[in-house]
């Protein structure tokens, strides 16, 4: 049976793969390919954040009464990563590779730390508390992420 942890972790890996495509294009100095790959990555990760913020987090908060806990931290980190995404995209758009590489490095470290917290703490908590809601939540997440 699919769990929130496995489903959302798979989506993290999908986003990581798209990010790696942008990094590989930059390593080859192919700025056009890097722009296209980064745009694809940015849209996938923003869809991931939106699915969590619209569906997963509110359902978890309603069920547990925890609105000031892990979901609040994740939302704050999403906001920080959105700013980094915008800055990295702007640097790529301007052809400023050095600036992009700095933003991308910061973003990568932040994503790794963020994903670890979600995969090892928040998603297992969701699976534990949302047993009855699981099929509906997974269906919502799947449809939100398939639109991206």
Automatic annotation (TrEMBL):
This protein's GO CC annotations: plasma membrane
Official protein name in the record: Hemerythrin
InterPro entries: Hemerythrin-like
Domain of life the protein comes from: Bacteria
Domain Hemerythrin-like: 4-126
Coiled-coil residue spans: none
């Amino acid at each position: 049976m699919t769990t929130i942890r496995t489903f959302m972790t798979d989506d993290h890996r999908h986003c990581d793969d798209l990010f790696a495509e942008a990094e590989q294009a930059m390593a080859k100095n192919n700025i056009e390919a890097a722009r296209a790959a980064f745009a694809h990555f940015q849209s996938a990760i923003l869809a991931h954040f939106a699915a969590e913020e619209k569906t997963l987090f509110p359902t978890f908060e309603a069920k547990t009464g925890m609105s000031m806990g892990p979901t609040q931290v994740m939302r704050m980190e999403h906001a920080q990563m959105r700013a980094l995404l915008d800055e990295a995209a702007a640097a790529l758009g301007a052809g400023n590779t050095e600036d992009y590489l700095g933003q991308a490095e910061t973003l990568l470290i932040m994503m790794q730390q963020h994903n670890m917290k979600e995969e090892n703490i928040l998603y297992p908590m969701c699976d534990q508390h949302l047993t009855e809601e699981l099929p509906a939540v997974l269906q919502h997440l799947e449809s939100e992420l398939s639109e991206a």
